[in-house]
Design brief:
Helix content: 55-70%
Number of strands: 0
CATH class: Mainly Alpha
CATH topology: 434 Repressor (Amino-terminal Domain)
Distance between the termini: 34 Å
C-alpha cells in the first residue's frame, strides 16, 4: 500500500508541474501565491514534501484545474492538450 500511495503522490506532483508549465507559470509565482518559498514549492513538485488537502485545493485553484485532474495518470492527455478528447 505504501508503494501505491507514493506512486500517486508522484503522479500528483508530476501533474502539478506539467500544468503549471503549460500555463507559463513559474515556481516562484506559485510559491508566492501559496505563501511559501520557491524551494518549498519545488519540493512539492519533486514529491519530497507530502502535500496537504488544503494545499492541493489551493494549488488547483491557482492553476485553474479541478483537483481530480491532478490525481489522474500523468501519461493521459488533458482535454486542453487534445481538443478532440473533450468532445468524446
Amino acid at each position: 500500500m505504501t508503494v501505491d500511495v507514493s506512486h500517486k503522490i508522484k503522479n500528483i506532483a508530476s501533474n502539478i508541474r506539467r500544468i503549471r508549465e503549460s500555463k507559463g507559470y513559474t515556481q516562484e509565482y506559485l510559491a508566492m501565491k501559496l505563501g511559501i518559498s520557491q524551494n518549498a514549492y519545488s519540493k512539492i513538485e519533486l514529491g519530497y514534501t507530502k502535500i496537504t488537502l488544503e494545499r492541493l485545493f489551493h494549488i488547483s485553484k491557482i492553476i485553474e484545474v479541478e483537483v481530480a485532474k491532478l490525481m489522474e495518470d500523468p501519461k493521459s492527455p488533458f482535454p486542453s492538450e487534445h481538443p478532440q478528447a473533450a468532445s468524446l
